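To: structure subgroup
Subject: Chain for Friday's discussion

All,

I'm putting the inputs and outputs inline so they're searchable in the archive.
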Amino acid sequence: MCNLKCWSLRALYLLMMCRSMQISKAEGNGEILPPTIQKIIKGYNKYLRPFFDNGPVSVGMSLDIASIDTISEINMDYTATIFLRQRWTDERLCFDGNKSLSLDGRLVEMLWVPDTFIVDSKKSFLHDITVENRLIRIYPNGTVLYALRITTTVACSMDLTKYPMDKQTCTLQLESWGYNINDVMFYWTRGNDSVSGLDTLQLAQYTVEDHFTSVSEAVYETGRYPKLVFHFELKRNILYFILETYVPSILLVVLSWVSFWISQSSVPARICIGVTTVLTMTTLMMGARTSLPNANCFIKAIDVYLGICFSFIFGALLEYAVAHFCTLHQLGSKEVPKDEDEEAEEERNGVLVALTNSCSTPDNINKMDSNRSSKTNTDRKKERSKHSGCTSPMSVMKRLFCIFDCFHVKNPYHIDNYARFSFPLSFIIINVLYWVYYLYF
């Protein structure tokens, strides 16, 4: 047992001696810490920004959009993976030579870096597989390149009144958290060309139509801070919605018109078509709303169209109800004796006679008074004007009776003939107005 312990101690001693000899050899060759890095780190204070007493430090930025993963109308945000590159000059990091130094990303903890943050970010994280995705590169003149790979979810206000024929403008805003414009100035390194990757980006429902950059300032209670804004405009691809929603709703409307060519005596067939199309349209409307916010104040273009289609389908069902009612009413009126028809006509005429007598009674009284007392010619003219004024209500009532008589359907089977023409024509006109308004206005 003692011999085993002795051999273990000897082996451990030999390993330590070999390791110390390798370290001594490496120190002799200067491989542990090069003099350039020693010189840079020595006396460097990472808590003080560059040009601390000589004005603000300028930080140039550029972006590379790797991907836009999701764009959510429900949460009104988008998730993107970006490469954020920042450049600034730190006079304390100047060194001799003509080659840049690429350092391990973990050395960033030893240097000063800008406190840049994404303004409307809901959640963000820095990729760390297999190590933290950071890049530090120092140039001989003191210029520092600091690059990060970030995935962030950013809020984007959307106007969905023209959904799905809408265009959305989203932004990515970069600001300094603690340094105001007297300490740090932000700028885009190459203007609008500072952002790349959007030209080759493929999105599921959108197409990137335009993008540009801008420089501004964020004003808060604590001061004015530098701000960079990247704007990009997204146009929704409508082909998916045409195949998924518009075409089925149009076919349902056309299917509801089939009942106009079915005999009115076939009650089960016409009722079945009407109820089936109404229920199917209701299901289609509910399915179209599942991908949108539940509590949304917008009346969207797709809601308007689905409402129009539902109205036409429901109108076709009501058309049969009216036609069937008029048919039953006509069959009942044929069984009524002619004497009752004559009595109804006499009652109608009696109403008009009563109105006439009510207007002529004051005239007779005036005539009796005129026989008893001598009136001037001017009084008689007034009486005639009153008489002419009383005849006007009677003519109005006659016109009303004529109008009501126009709505009387003599042949209920003509209702289907009118519907075969009026429903498709009105639907085509409304479609033309709908598409012109939402596509060009």
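Points worth raising on Friday:
The chain has eight helices and twelve strands.
Residues 22-31, 359-376, 381-390 have pLDDT under 50 and may be disordered.

D.
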